[in-house]
């Protein structure tokens, strides 16, 4: 269970170790058989042969997303063909076998040349997200969005980082309504009143740039729009607080204060993370109240990606091994940027 976690974890209190193992398991960086299990409510819905359920609860008007099957069917790692990713495009090491590298225990500090490479990768991710967002409308499938974003990333001589990461079968993640994270693009058409998070990471010049945003499909109800606004605001407030000497734990405090004041919960099961030569690396960025050690220093790069939920922020992992939905069916929203700490403050690389 402690695979790829880093030796510094072993020096922490046991309850913190357990919490971090759970979080890393969700990102595919550790294994756990007990983190997420399908619940009976999913089984009940499937007995009625429905893919998404009408929801007129306290959370608002939208269609709740559920799995098509409870048969375990996590995709196996599969190296992308040369027709899908041309030979001239540099691939991350995991592209062949699906296995990410072991984490370094230290937090990488980028020199100016490395920071410039990270900017290049982040700009591709930013532009790809803009393209994906422009396609969001009723009737469009998330599979179609994935296809176009994939082509765009390749056209920029970059690799879509999600592709074959721990066997992930697509180039982006698309998470609709009550899907917290890691939704696999598919053939379900987006519907008026949905909202969808598009999460994109691009690998270019040996570095990864990561960003995401939640987009409204047609007319989203007032409760859904309020959740989206609160999540975006929590990200903005956290970024504004970043700079040399600021405690990393400050991010979680700021997000939690803002979310709780508006009546939302914050996911404690998925975190931000260091980013650079590796897709995921130290430091872990918690979006909830925490006592993690460490402070920001110039050259440190990481993602801030809060997930706010209408109800309970606990997740259920689907049999596909990736998709995570809220246990109570409430909606969740997420916004994300890659940031670089500078001598003057913070640079948002994916803005």
Please name the defining characteristics of this protein.
351 residues, alpha+beta, four-stranded antiparallel beta sheet, 26% helix, disordered N terminus, three-stranded antiparallel beta sheet, 20% strand, 6 helices
Task: Provide structural commentary.
This protein has helices spanning 14-26, 40-47, 112-134, 142-155, 222-240, 249-261; strands spanning 52-55, 62-65, 159-160, 173-176, 179-181, 195-204, 207-216, 265-266, 272-274, 281-285, 301-304, 307-309, 315-317, 324-326, 332-334, 337-341, 346-348. It has 351 residues and is of the alpha+beta class. Helix 3 (112-134) packs antiparallel against helix 4. It is globular and about 50 Å long. Mean pLDDT is 87; it is low at 1-40 and 45-56.
The main β sheet shows up as: 4 strands, antiparallel
Instruction: Summarize model confidence as the mean pLDDT.
Output: 87
Radius of gyration: 19 Å
Alpha-beta classification = alpha+beta
Percent in strands: 15-25%
Number of helix segments? 6
Low-pLDDT ranges: 1-40, 45-56
First-to-last CA distance: 36 Å
Give a quick precis of the structure.
With 351 residues, the protein is α+β, with helices and mostly antiparallel strands. The chain has 6 helices and 17 strands. Helices cover 26% and strands 20% of the residues.
Set out the fold topology.
Elements: H1 14-26, H2 40-47, E1 52-55, E2 62-65, H3 112-134, H4 142-155, E3 159-160, E4 173-176, E5 179-181, E6 195-204, E7 207-216, H5 222-240, H6 249-261, E8 265-266, E9 272-274, E10 281-285, E11 301-304, E12 307-309, E13 315-317, E14 324-326, E15 332-334, E16 337-341, E17 346-348
Antiparallel strand pairs: 1-2, 3-6, 4-6, 5-14, 6-7, 8-12, 9-10, 11-16, 12-15, 13-14, 16-17
Helix pairs in contact: 3-4, 5-6
